[in-house]
Design goal:
Number of domains: 1
Mean pLDDT: 94
Low-confidence stretches: 314-318
Strand order of the largest sheet: 1-2-4-3-5-6-7-8
Order of helices and strands: HHEEEHEHEHEHHEHEH
CATH architecture: 3-Layer(aba) Sandwich
CATH superfamily: Alpha/Beta hydrolase fold, catalytic domain
Number of helices: 9
CATH class: Alpha Beta
Strand content: 15-25%
Distance between the termini: 31 Å
Radius of gyration: 18 Å
Length: 318
């Protein structure tokens, strides 16, 4: 279908303030632009009963996390959230509104992880932090007000990539046990020739050349690591059986659309319960814009509903 009119207007605005990732914009400038765009919308962020910045143990020192708890109840389910941004940009701040909304809608503790970013900290630093934080949440769930038996992993874009890989690492390690994975337009493969990569190469916020740039920042060619490693490209992992049920979101006008859907299909072939939803007329990044896009509200409601169902409850976005 054609680009959604709301999406088109927003893309024009974002282009005016140079929010297209990659290109001639340097890492520091790109981070500042993304942070500024997010902070400008913070005044409309919905309240959450308890918001606490703390740390969890990590392989290179304490990992900053932000914990959102929707009330005084304890023994709540927990969502570990890994922000997007090509493994290079993004932070707890850029995804604050998303995590607030999920905490309230799912009636869960949401733990947003400030994992290390490339190129200062190339692969596998961010992944190591993501997995360590997930283990830390399981170990400290009770003091966070959470239930260690009901933990889900979630993330968008590069965070969706990390979430998918963390689910695989947890399965391989025998824990922590995860009951659900929410993958929002995840990066799942080092590929640039799928129809969505070609058809959506430019003009829709995330561009194909930008994705190449992100991979180049994340995987240091001098380190001996390669982006085709399944820990970077989980689509290339041969065995996907035994993973938690997944809710996968893709967007029509997104270079990553086809690889997200291919990974969902691989999960189904492996016997994993999967719900896949493509949002027509939308672009990469739409999910976090609930206050600006009607389709983002629909998608976030659906994601919250899937999490709530996985935890054994019913969704009610506040």
């Amino acid at each position: 279908m054609p680009l959604d009119p709301q999406a088109g207007e927003l893309l024009e605005l974002m282009a005016d303030v140079a929010l297209v990732p990659g290109g001639a914009v340097g890492v520091d400038e790109l981070r500042a632009q993304i942070e500024s765009f997010a902070l400008a919308r913070r005044e409309d962020a919905e309240p959450v009963a308890h918001v606490e910045d703390r740390t969890l143990p990590g392989p290179a020192g304490p990992i900053p996390v932000r914990c959102y708890r929707p009330g005084d109840e304890t023994d709540l389910p927990v969502v570990v959230y890994l922000h997007g941004g090509g493994w290079v940009i993004g932070s707890i701040e850029t995804h604050d509104a998303t995590c607030r909304g999920l905490a309230n809608a799912v009636d869960a503790v949401v733990v947003s992880v400030d994992y290390r970013l490339a190129p200062e900290h190339p692969f596998p630093a961010g992944l190591d932090d993501a997995f360590a934080a997930t283990r830390g949440v399981a170990d400290h769930a009770a003091e966070l007000g959470g239930d260690p038996a009901r933990i889900a992993i979630a993330g968008d874009s590069a965070g969706g990539n990390l979430a998918a890989v963390v689910a695989l690492l947890a399965r391989d390690a025998g824990g922590p046990a995860l009951c659900h994975q929410l993958l929002v337009y995840p990066v799942t493969d080092y590929e640039f020739d799928s129809p969505s990569m070609r058809d959506n190469a430019t003009g829709y916020f995330l561009e194909t050349d930008s994705m190449r740039w992100f991979f180049d920042q994340y995987v240091d060619p001098g380190s001996g690591e390669h982006p085709e490693d399944w820990r970077v490209s989980p689509q290339r992992r041969s065995d996907l059986a035994g993973l938690p049920p997944a809710f996968v979101i893709t967007a029509e006008y997104d270079p990553l659309r086809d690889q997200g859907e291919a990974y969902a299909n691989r999960l189904v072939e492996a016997g994993v319960s999967v719900e896949l939803r493509r949002y027509d007329g939308m672009f990469h990044g739409f999910f976090g814009m609930r206050d600006l896009l009607d389709s983002a509200r629909v998608a976030s409601d659906a994601a919250a509903g899937a999490l709530r169902e996985a935890f054994g409850g019913h969704v009610a976005w506040r």
